[in-house]
Design the sequence.
């Protein structure tokens, strides 16, 4: 027998980093050259601290049956523009909507109340529509969701698409019956646990930034990429089979304890100065 022990880096932890994201924004009034400072009342200082406390507190919402919001998108739109962070909790059930997260200057966390019991589903005849899409500059953490996708486009057919954003997927289950599972162009991408499986095309696509800039930095820890890329195409311009993971254009990627199994073509493919490091990972039956 053989035993492999892997010491995983701290970024593999599922612990929330909300505390670091929500650092205190308190600011006390300072009046220079006034020894007594009698005209600066305690009320003025209290008001300043109260405003700062409100600014540093996350805005929270609940979505689902019996909750204040019935749609994830509506809840996101209702968040105040000056929120320091946005936290949306999803009740069990299926949400049939296309979720687009803009750059709003605050990190967004969307978490299933019971991991694995909430589905984000988007099936469409329109091209270029992912079930979950992040705009440039957006920052989001998605936790415990199942994502189901089907679209008609030949190119850019993704269940999840991050365009120059910062996206973390914790314990998510992703599949696209017509395209790729997770795609990122530029920005930062982190996957922890979960699975990307049974996608018609690649399970994971990693591209450098579309218009230049810093290369995409991607990490995955303990994620399973299973049975992706087996679609051969139906006279499509892009024919299969496909690799399980594709990286190109200067991407920097690190995979710890991942499995890439049963891909239609190669397990991992890297082009155009992409750099991929695999630690304690397995590639089988690709």
Sequence:
């Amino acid at each position: 027998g053989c035993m492999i022990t892997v010491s995983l880096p701290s970024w593999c932890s599922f612990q929330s980093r909300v505390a670091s994201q929500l650092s205190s924004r308190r600011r006390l009034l300072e009046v220079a050259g006034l020894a007594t400072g009698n005209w600066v009342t305690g009320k003025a200082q209290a008001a300043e601290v109260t405003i700062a406390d409100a600014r540093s507190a996350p805005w929270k919402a609940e979505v689902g049956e019996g909750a204040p919001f019935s749609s994830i998108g509506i809840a996101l739109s209702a968040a105040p523009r000056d929120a320091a962070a946005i936290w949306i909790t999803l009740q069990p059930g299926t949400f049939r909507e296309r979720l687009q997260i803009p750059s709003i200057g605050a990190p967004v966390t969307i978490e299933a109340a019971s991991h694995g019991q909430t589905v984000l589903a988007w099936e469409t005849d329109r091209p270029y529509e992912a079930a979950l899409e992040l705009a440039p500059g957006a920052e989001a953490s998605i936790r415990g969701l199942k994502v189901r996708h089907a679209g008609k486009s030949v190119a850019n057919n993704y269940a999840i698409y991050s365009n120059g954003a910062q996206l973390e997927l914790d314990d998510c289950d992703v599949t696209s019956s017509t395209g790729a599972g997770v795609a990122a162009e530029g920005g930062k991408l982190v996957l922890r646990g979960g699975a990307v499986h049974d996608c018609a095309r690649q399970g994971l696509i990693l591209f450098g930034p579309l218009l230049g800039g810093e290369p995409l930095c991607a990490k995955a820890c303990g994620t399973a990429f299973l049975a992706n890329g087996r679609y051969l195409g139906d006279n499509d311009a892009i024919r299969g089979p496909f690799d399980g993971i594709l990286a190109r254009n200067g991407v920097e990627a690190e995979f710890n304890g991942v499995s890439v199994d049963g891909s239609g073509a190669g397990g991992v493919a890297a082009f155009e100065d992409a750099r991929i490091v695999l630690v304690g990972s397995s590639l089988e039956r690709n």
